[in-house]
Amino acid sequence: MRLLHILHNWRKRNRARLREYKLMFTALTRSPTAIAGLVLSMSFIILGIVGPYIAPYNPIEIDFEKMHELRLQPPSWEHPFGTDEFGRDLFSRVLCGARISLMVAIVVLSIAIPLGIVLGLIAGYFGGVVDEVIMRVTDVFLSFPGLILAIAFSAAFGASIWSAMAAIALVWWPPYVRVVRGQVLQIKESLFVEAAKALGLNPLKIMFRHILPNALTPVIVLATLDFGSVILVAAALSFIGLGAQPPTPEWGRLVADGRAYFPEKWWYVFFPGLAIFLTALGWNLLGDALRDVLDPRYRRRLEFKERRGR
Amino acid sequence: MDPIVVVDNLRKWFPIKKLFFTKGWVRAVDGVSFIIREGETFGLVGESGCGKSTLGRLIVRLLEPTSGTVYFEGKDVFRLRGRELKEFRRKVQIVFQDPYSSLNPRMMVFDIVAEAIKATQQEIPEDMEDYVASILEKVGLSREHLYRYPHEFSGGQRQRIAIARVLAVRPKFIVLDEPTSSLDVSVQAQILNMLKDLQKEHNFTYLFISHDLAVVKYMSHRIAVMYLGKIVEIAPSDEIFEAPLHPYTQVLLSSIPIPDPKIARSRMKLRPKGEPPSPINPPPGCRFHPRCPQACSLCAREEPPLIEIERDHYVACWLYARK
Hints:
By secondary structure, chain A is mostly helical. Chain A has helices spanning about 1-30, 30-55, 65-70, 90-125, 130-145, 145-155, 160-170, 175-185, 190-200, 205-240, 250-260, 265-295, 295-310. Chain A has a domain at about 40-60 and about 100-285: MetI-like fold.
């Protein structure tokens, strides 16, 4: 009974919030491209988690006895994506590669986004000299193409998947600073921020309770789009030999290794490439859809339509 | 009645920057002095752009002045630090004009009001939900509105929420910065009456800022008329309307529409010449002289001081200040 009471109270308090989430979900499932994005990106995450457990073969070990007869086999029922030059199952290797890409994206974004948010909040809120210093440093980073800078850092750290991650994270934060700062500049002029100041709230509370929640929408959209981009850049770094090293089944690495046998043994390049392509596409579609879903005006319109429909 | 707020020669000039150089100054508030007495409603009228909102923001210390100061309960507002500043924030609050921007769209009504309580009160009520609901009832909302977002309310209801947030602080002095000018007329009246009732109940002191003369007259005990960053006349409410002294006040009053066309036609029509000049380069001497129907050569040269003509009736005009 008591549990029921707590549940009832929780529902009462969060009724409005729940309705927003429901509307977001409705908005998301209304457009076919959004559904495609959602399906692709979610299956990527799921495969990233369970991939190594459901892989039919060991992705790394080489069976030296059968190596010659299994070598570079075309796709078949036994090996749906074919095999590589050491006779390893490419399907298993691509599946395990999902986890590596997922990890890279999560690590890079969980360094770059908080860093970008904090710097952007400080620059936008305090302005003046603080703003100038932060923004000039950001501009310096932005003035180099991200990939080139990542190549330089990665080469300096020594080639490994970890140094690739560090290098990408190091060049990935500046756009977030820009986006957050722009939002803060606009939101800090709002009267509700003035009201919070009149209440005597400290700057930290004003920044994190009043400004940040209202500045987050473009950050979420950007982060979703970047999920695909980070994976692409990581694959590119591995492709040119600066990221994951053999025998790691990283997708960019697989494409690079398969290049030597292209186009006769097309499957070696094709399936890892397809995985990269679908993942990047999925996150891009999802990001685009979120732009609409997270726009409250769009949700209001939808709510209106739903009420009329009933 | 004791003065609760003393405004002393307050100035706020905003720089106009071009690249790295200051090209000029917008003299939004330019040497303003007056007092507000405890328990009264002090009205502040003027055209839009005359600096009345800037003045309101200065008094609650949302802006720092260029020079001059404000005293609240005898203390220099802009020198307050730490605990004293907190105390000031607890005692002085502001209601803004636009209720669509003054409420955080990501916070529910309960959180908006509860935050104000937590930020300013020493004793936090045990049952916050009950307490917040009781404040909502005071402003004509109800318990069922607690867990809703601002976008679910109308303009008038939002302004009630903004007032609830101020009530939660239990202040002594409230700046009402055009609290009803973005609402339609029937809602305006409700909010104004509610503000009057709350004042009676809690003995609030109000600074009521508006461009609407009828509304200011209805609300205020005393009224100050502002023109281009300066106060030109201060008088008790009835006196301003029955015997306005400053030519600008006269012009302003004659612009009130009168419902009866016969009276309207018979009334002398006073119109100022041209548009109000820009506060960037205000005219020398009396600010109103280029548009004043009774200007003389002195008005263009020297600025008239604000002097007491009758008891409690101040005016800044050379017509009344013999030199």
